[in-house]
Write a structure and sequence with these properties.
Layout: H1 2-12, H2 18-73, E1 103-105, E2 112-114
Antiparallel strand pairs: 1-2
This protein binds zinc ion.
Length: 122
């Protein structure tokens, strides 16, 4: 009896069985897929936030453009081209949507929005 349990202990102490290894690998796979999915969602959220910040920068530049034309010409006029806003943007360039959307100027309100619907400012 003692001898057989010693033999069993010796075999067991050799390492993990194949089934135990497979279970561990499956658990690691599930955990890493959840972590990767969550990381991808965070980067999408960060890119959308950057796009919204870009729209706020462009709309602030649009307001400054409106004030400037009002002072210079006596009547208010929105910029109809994003390049007209460059003098009012600190970076000196028109920011671009990080996911590839395009910024469009509403001809009536002058408000600048991204063409991607998930980047609409509330
Ligand atoms: Zn965008």
């Amino acid at each position: 009896m003692i001898k057989s349990s010693l033999i069993h202990f010796k075999m067991k102490s050799g390492g993990f069985t194949l089934v135990e290894l497979i279970i561990i690998l499956v658990i690691i796979g599930i955990l890493s897929s959840v972590a990767i999915l969550r990381f991808m969602m965070l980067t999408d959220t960060a890119k959308a936030s950057l796009c919204i910040a870009n729209q706020q920068t462009l709309n602030a530049a649009q307001a400054m453009y409106l004030a400037q034309t009002s002072v210079n010409t006596g009547y208010s006029e929105y910029a109809d081209d994003l390049n007209d806003l460059i003098p009012f943007i600190d970076s000196g360039t028109v920011p671009e949507c990080p996911i590839g959307g395009t910024y469009e100027i509403d001809p009536v309100s002058g408000i600048i929005t991204c063409s991607l619907t998930e980047h609409i400012v509330d």
